[in-house]
Amino acid sequence: MDELEAVLSRVRERVLPEPEERERLRETAATLTDRTREAIADLPVEADVVQVGSTARGTWVAGDRDIDLFVRFDADLDRAELEEYGLDVGHAVLPDGHEEFAEHPYVKGSYEGFDVDLVPCHDVERAAELISAVDRTPFHDAYLSARLDNDLAGDVVLAKAFLKGIGAYGSDLRTEGFSGYLTELLVLELGGFVPLVESARSWHPPVEFDPEGHAERTFEDPLVVVDPTDPTRNVAAVLSAANLARFQHYARELLAAPSEALFDPDEPEPLDSKEVRAHLDRRGTTPVAVVFDAPDVVDDQLWPQLRRSLDGIVGGLNDHGFDVLRARAMTDTAGAADAAVASDVEETAERDVSDEPTRAALYAELEVTERPTVERHEGPPVAVRKHAASFYESYVDDVDPDTYGPFIDGDRYVVEREREFATVREYLESDAASDVALGAQVEPAFDDRDVLVGEAVATLAPAFGRPLREFYEPRP
Known about the structure:
metal-binding, magnesium, 19% strand, 4-stranded antiparallel beta sheet, 476 residues, alpha+beta, Beta Polymerase, domain 2, single chain, NuclTrfase_I-like_C, CCA tRNA nucleotidyltransferase activity, Poly(a)-polymerase, middle domain, Alpha-Beta Plaits, nucleotide-binding, 5-stranded mixed beta sheet
């Protein structure tokens, strides 16, 4: 434990904001709050403003520069007026800002070097009565602010730095990691960062925490943390099983061999074409890539559709005998995951990013890429009279010269018939590949796809080099 404490002490020096940074943020937030109140005063309705998120609670990692201000309107105000007045306030406070969208539009901009979100919401009495998903955020802030002391807040920062270092931080639907709110609740529930990792190393999912003991439903997620402000919601619903397992793996590693490196994000360098070919030569498998224009949607819409499409293609490949060893969806930019800070706003916001992907790829590594011209098709045992007779009769008059049988092999009828697709390229370029379950907005783009097989995938390296390195050099 002495070695662990020494490591954590050095990490704290790096990740906890200095007093000067805290003061500058406090002054900037106060100025923006005053400007927001002035803009509200010009409205024909009443509202107030509250600062929320990690910078409001003192739980941000040094260098993060986000200020989230929520403008709360009366719960009776209709959605159209809330949007209108909320944007009026946002543009008044951030005249150079731009509009983004959660469940309704809000204004995002910068001020004195800080990234600022100005979000309208309804002032509901309880989080369970929310009208829009963002309405619950002020309740999150109030709950945590009343319970996090300085020591726990510092441990939250350690936990966030650790999750960033292992690549499991961010509640966007690309990352499927730990949100800021989830991280804070876990540190609060377990009593600190060290108790959290000590607990996590022995978890056997599903794991459930209910801080207020008020859950009103059951959940089937690998980690369940019942929202203390809303008994119907699992705060960890976005968290993937893989990222939960990743957290457990590195929790064990930190406790067994403490290292500051675990708190340092590792951004892999892109693979170049030569390196891709070297991996292919060493592995002896055959890669395939289906490449198409990425739908023009934000990441939180894009990635669920890409994963659905990948599942469909992998299922089709396996069904046709092209055994998939491993597969993943890719885009030609790092996208929002690189900038994810998982604030409370980001739990519900579909964020636009400046480096939006233009191309997407469904990438798979295959054990088999070519099959015999014929395939075996077994019927029922001859003794099963009705079904056996039906099978036999359906083939006995088949005049196709490429069909063998029906004949008896063992106790059943068998035919050997022409395989629909003998090569993986034939399948991926066919209409059958489009018939699998694809994301709704992927489907039209999929019609104009490029299919790459074997060493041709190396041509993807200039645009997809980083996800290719993550694919061929995976880490826990």
